[in-house]
Structure formats: structure tokens, C-alpha cells
Amino acid sequence: MGQGIRRQLHGLALITALAAPALQPPAAQAGPAAAAGAPAAAPATAPAAAAGSTTPAGLHGIPYAYRENRDTVALVEAARQAIAKKGEAAFPAFRQRGGPWFQGDQYVFVWDLQGIRRVDPVQPANEGRSGLALRDAGGRPLGRMLLERASGGEAAGWVHYQWRLPDPRYPRPVWKSSYVSRVTAPSGRTYLVGSGNYEGRVEKGFVVDEVKAAAALLRRQGRAAFPALRDPKGRFVFHETYVFVDTTAGVELVNPAFPEVEGRKLMDLRDVAGKPMVRDYIALALRQGSGWTTYLWPQPGASRLPLEKHTYVEKVVLPDGEVLIVGSGVYEP
Fold first, then answer.
1. CATH number for the domain including 71?
2. I need a labelling partner for 208 at 20 to 30 A (CA). Which of 52, 190, 215, 313 fits?
3. What are 262-291's pLDDT values in tens digits?
4. How far apart are CA 76 and CA 107, in angstroms?
């Protein structure tokens, strides 16, 4: 039997086995927020990571691997510099289709920090209108997410959502990753300037960004943060990327992509190559505090064929002192 067939059968067997009735975590592992009647967390976005983790060259010290993401950041940074120098006089050039700021499906948009859209080259009728209530095709609170990124301590960052291409021949929404940056014009007015790429590829830096945001949320809210981590309309689920949470004993507490594994002890689970992946990444996080590991795992929404997955994990201490492991990963293209 060929290696590819063995991997596919292993992937199917893995998911089938894990779909059995879930085992409940031992009582000693249940934090206070897991008790019956504990309030659900209100939808919230964690604060930005430590200042300096977002730069034009990359995220969290990891250079951008893909040209579309580097080009998007370069475009936004150039637009930010134009606003910083020329102020609102830079806006007309942003609207010109075929100009340097609007090429194909790549364009620059500008909002003020009250959520009013100041430059919308694709739908100019929206200029002057509030975007605070704007949601993407999947129901994500896009307006709020964009503003929180630009208003936070980093003053810049990425937002991932589902959006339609500017070309009306393609009405179906696709994944879009937009980079936004805060800028103050000579007039003293402060703006959010951004641009995005459609169906772009997930960077390792994106994964670290989400893990650190999830860890910050867990430090503040404890297990009450779990609903926000699972929310398909929140920031933590996009493309094939999702955040998972384990106890130090290997019980999977959060896995929005494969909910059938929640509540199961996976410490002895091995991938198709025989790697004890859960045991390994828990040991890594406990030993170093954070780090990367690689193993084979099925990609959500696609074939059950296990693919190479690069996963970043981080140890987090909850308000009640419980230690958990939070992680996320990117699949090898």
C-alpha cells in the first residue's frame, strides 16, 4: 500500500475514532468557569500583543514568507506616509482605478477612528457613512475588528474576513486578509488606512498573532474565554486556521475545527508517522514557555488526508492558577 493511501486511511481512522462519545475531563481539571451556570464570555477581541511585534518586515520576528502579504504591507505603509505628509489631499489619488493605489483587486481604504469611511474606491457612495456595524459574509463584526486593530497599542495589524472581490463577475465571498495602520495627518485628524489581498496564504506570523491574542484573553477571562475561541464569527477562526486549548494532561478543551475531540484525553495520540504530537507540544510549552513543532494532521474543510502542520504553542496561566496550553498552526502548502 502506498504512503499516500496509508495517510488517507489513517486520517479517516483518526477522525472516526475521535468521534466516539467524548470523555469528560477529570473534575480536578475543571476550572471555576466550567461549572454549571458559569456566564458565557461576551464576544471580545484580546488586546494587541506586546508593542513592536508588528513591523513592515514581518510579525513577531518572523519575516513574511509570501509576496502578496509583503506587497500589501508595503502599499499600506506607503499610503500611511502619504497621509502623514499630505493629509486629506492624498485621498483623491487613492480613489483612481488603475492608479498606483488601486490596481486590479488591490486598493487602499481609509476610515477615521470614529468608524466613518473616508475613502472607499470600490463603493464611493459609502464615503461619509459609518462602518461600525459592518459585518463580513460570515457575520464577523468587521467594522469593530478593523478599528480595534488600528486603535490598539500596536497601531497596526492584520484582520481576516470573508469579502467579495471588486469584480462583479465574482459575487461569491472569499477569504481576505487586510493590513491596517493608524496615521495622524497634518490636520491633526487620525485615520485608519488599510488594504488587503484576496485568497492569500496564511503566514506563520498570523498564527503567533492569534495564539498570543488567545493567551491574553485566557489570562483575563480564564475558561470563560472558551466560547470566544470557538466562535466561527470571531477572530480566532479563519481560512483553515483555528486555536485549540489543552490541559497539561492532554485533555483537549477547545477545538472548533474538530469539536468531536473536545473532552478527550489525547496525550498518547500519535500522527501517521508515529509522532506523539500532543505529548511533544505540551512538553515543549511547559519546558520553554512557547515554541514550534511539526506533525501530520487533517486540514479542516478539506480531505481527511493528514498534512504537514507547523504548530505554535504557548503556556498560559489562568486567573485561578490553572495552567493550559494554547496553540494554532499553518498547513504546509
1. 3.30.450.20
2. 190
3. 999 999 999 999 999 999 999 999 999 999
4. 9
